[in-house]
Amino acid sequence: MKKIIIAILFIASTNTLFSQQNTQKTSKIGWFLTPEVGAMFLESHVGNTVGVSFGLKFWKDRIKLGIMGYGRSGPTNPATFAITPYNNQTYKGKSTLNVRADWGTFGLMIAPTFHIKKITIDVPITYGGGAGGFYLAGDDRKTPDGDRVSVWENKLFNGEDAAFGTMTEFGIRAFFPTKIKGMTYGAGLHYTLISGWKTFYDPSGDFYNNKLRASLFINFGS
Fold first, then answer.
1. What confidence tens digit (pLDDT) does each residue in 149-158 have?
2. Structural domains in the chain?
């Protein structure tokens, strides 16, 4: 993994060095803010995501350092998943429940950046954490004894209704100019790896691991 990251950084940095070797040697620091919407390609369906990246640009816009995060919230993802509670428990007389899934990630991002005419390309590499799980939805959130729904989710799913894991994501994004100074728009493709995340519904941890994600965004910056 480290060798892949080093190779990407070396290639991108070499590209920008030679393509901009005639520019001034003085360093310039800028900023960027990139809100996005996206689609996560899961095994059974496509999930909707909302996210943002922000931070600083260095070395005359040859590299970005910042924060990236995105979420796959339950309300915007109506897909349900059938699950049999732990130890054959029943809930409101039901032995099979339909649950929804949510997910969120947050991490440090480094993005080597280069330019092809008026188009800007960056290669964001993000390392951080991801958390999410499966939860009761609809009328099932009204518990039979009035206790918190999270207490029941822990009982029904053996304390493994949600979990936290380590997230590494590699991507490539293209930025296209607009007539508004400091604003661009674009699209990206990302590859996500999650380790150490498993739940009662998905003990293998593959639900979000080894998945592709696409993004559409607007970028603001200097």
1. 999 999 999 9
2. 2-20+27-166+180-221 (2.40.160)
